[in-house]
Each structure stands twice: as C-alpha cells, then as structure tokens.
Amino acid sequence: MNYGIRDIIDLHVFDQDGKFVATVSTLKKGSISVVNRTIRVKDALLNGNLLKFLNKSENKMSDYDKFFSTTQNYETIVFNRKVVNCKLIAEGFYRKDENQEDVLVQYEMPKCSIVSGYDFNHSTVGDADEFDYVFEIKEFNEEGDLFKLHIEK
C-alpha cells in the first residue's frame, strides 16, 4: 500500500510521566526527521499551556493582595534556556493511493525534549508572528528505537 502525506500534524504533548500538557492544533508547517532526530513545527498561535510547561509561572501577588486589588490580574512567566523532557504524539492523515481514502496516522514518541526558544515579534501590519517549536527525538529503548508509526487500516 502506498500513502501520500496530505495534512499538517497536531501535537499532543505530555510530561515525562505521561500527564497531558497541551494539544497544539494550530500548526502551519511541520516536519519529522529520522536522520536529524527532530520534529520542527511552526505554530500560528502561542499555546499558553505549553508556554507554562516550558517555563515557570510566577505570581508576584499573594491571594490576600489579590482580594483587595482593583488592578487587573495577570500571570508572570519566567523564561530560561532549559531543556524540557516530554512524550509526544503527532497526528495527521495519510491518503491511500488505491482509493483516495484518508487514514489517521499517529507518530508515537515516548521520549523527547523540547529544545526551542521563542522570538516575540510585535507588529500592527502583516501576519501574526509564528512560533517555532523544535523537539529532539531520543532513543526510548536499548535497541535505539526512536518512535512508532501507527497507520489506521
């Protein structure tokens, strides 16, 4: 059976213990490279849950202070250059060549790291800024396996 890759992937991110973190479903472009052991994606929107997972939240105001505050409430996120370990499932569709039917495909990556940073570009003209995520795919067993590919029958 031959397949054509015809759809952008959605990413489901889990922490290294398997707890769900975020789904990134606004990707504009994505590639999975076995040779480079990476997943590189361009996201149209900044995912707040992933942003908090990659960095750390800091709340400068105590609950007591918030109770009396008339100013707008906000959350502070502190950035650093650390590498964050995770598990990843990428989903998309392949098209069968024989009947032009779409089938779900899932890339299961039990051991990854998010190694990318952010560039924040603000402008009132043109398109919104895209956010790049780079995931490093790591070997998940002693045989050196990187990921599993699940194709719907």
Helix content: under 10%
Class inferred from helices and paired strands: mainly beta
Q: What fraction of residues sit in β-strands? A: over 45%
- What summary fits the major beta sheet? 9 strands, antiparallel
Contiguous helical run count = 2
Q: How many angstroms does the end-to-end distance come to?
A: 11 Å
What is the mean predicted local confidence, pLDDT? 83
Protein topology:
Layout: E1 3-5, E2 10-15, E3 20-24, E4 27-33, E5 38-43, H1 48-54, E6 56-58, H2 63-68, E7 76-78, E8 84-96, E9 102-114, E10 131-137, E11 148-151
Antiparallel strand pairs: 1-8, 2-3, 2-8, 4-5, 5-10, 6-7, 8-9, 9-10, 9-11
Report a brief summary of the structure:
This protein is mostly beta strands.
Description:
The protein is mainly beta. It has two helices and eleven strands; from the N terminus they run βββββαβαβββββ. It has helices at 48-54, 63-68; strands at 3-5, 10-15, 20-24, 27-33, 38-43, 56-58, 76-78, 84-96, 102-114, 131-137, 148-151. The strands form two sheets. Strands 1, 2, 3, 4, 5, 8, 9, 10 and 11 form a nine-stranded antiparallel sheet that branches. The longest helix is centred in the middle third of the chain and has 7 residues, at 48-54. It starts with a strand and ends with a strand.
